Structure to design on (288 residues):
């Protein structure tokens, strides 16, 4: 099993402003229980019981992205029997973009970049991350990733999918992993219907893959039945060969333990698709 989306953090080694901001609610809830070090040993203990042999670490808001990437590199190198790749942060609109990408590519674990386009409507209105879609340098950066053989991890909300698809169509050589199934934050029947319609703009692009991850962030008290229509839509639109499981731990540990989360995903994915969704797709996409 490969967990294609998780985080690690060591508060003594890397500075994370959002983990230091006590009492500040986030779109996914109250982060207080996870505002402590979550190292590889913690993640290994959570995941190994399900046959995990590798994983993909995703950047998670460090004050200095290169410090975080170097720390993750060191953590990965210390594991003898674990395959770990990482997706680091790079501001694709920065004048230093190429130099920063050069630095990241000196690290053997780096496979791609994540620069968040959208988290949730409320936070996006405050941070303005969606303004990336109007910045020509963002498109240029996406294109450069493809030229370098790097992928892009895409986190956004359904309201931005059509516009994002138009950009990605101009960067056809850049492989993209859609984080958290595109963040379907409205879990009403109508909300999921609209999400599924807009998701098609991305799933129609052959270079876009889908991470079935982070489904608890917008529905904390979930049941397996709540995940089923989301996962089925992802499989219908992308196919199992373009879908991969990610735990989003330790963020999703706010809503359940790893066992319950993993078993819920296993129950919602047809047995015939298990090999692809829980290992093969991520192995291929992230070159594990």
């Amino acid at each position: 099993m490969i967990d294609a989306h998780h985080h690690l953090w060591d508060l003594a080694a890397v500075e994370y402003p959002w983990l230091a901001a006590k009492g500040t609610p986030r779109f996914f809830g109250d982060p207080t229980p996870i505002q402590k070090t979550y190292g590889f040993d913690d993640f290994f203990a959570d995941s190994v019981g399900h046959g995990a042999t590798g994983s993909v670490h995703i950047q998670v808001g460090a004050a200095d992205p290169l410090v975080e990437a170097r720390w993750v590199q060191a953590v990965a190198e210390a594991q003898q029997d674990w395959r770990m790749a990482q997706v680091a942060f790079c501001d694709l609109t920065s004048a230093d973009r190429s130099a920063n990408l050069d630095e990241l590519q000196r690290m053997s674990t780096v496979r791609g970049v994540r620069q968040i386009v959208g988290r949730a409507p409320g936070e996006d209105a405050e941070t303005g991350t969606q303004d990336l879609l109007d910045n020509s340098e963002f498109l240029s950066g996406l294109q450069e990733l493809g030229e370098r053989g790097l992928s892009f991890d895409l986190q956004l909300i359904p309201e931005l999918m059509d516009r994002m698809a138009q950009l990605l169509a101009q960067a056809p050589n850049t492989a993209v992993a859609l984080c958290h199934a595109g963040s379907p934050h409205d879990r009403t029947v109508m909300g999921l219907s609209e999400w599924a319609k807009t998701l098609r703009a991305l799933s129609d692009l052959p270079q876009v893959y889908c991470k079935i991850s982070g489904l608890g962030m917008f529905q904390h008290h979930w049941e397996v039945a709540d995940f089923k229509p989301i996962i089925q839509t992802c499989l219908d639109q992308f196919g199992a060969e373009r879908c991969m499981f990610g735990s989003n731990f330790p963020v999703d540990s706010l809503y359940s333990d790893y066992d319950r989360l993993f078993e819920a995903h296993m129950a919602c994915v047809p047995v015939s698709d298990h090999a692809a969704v829980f290992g093969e797709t991520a192995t291929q996409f992230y070159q594990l």
Notes: The mean pLDDT is 97. The chain has eleven helices and eight strands. Residues 2-285 form a domain with the TIM Barrel fold (CATH 3.20.20.140).
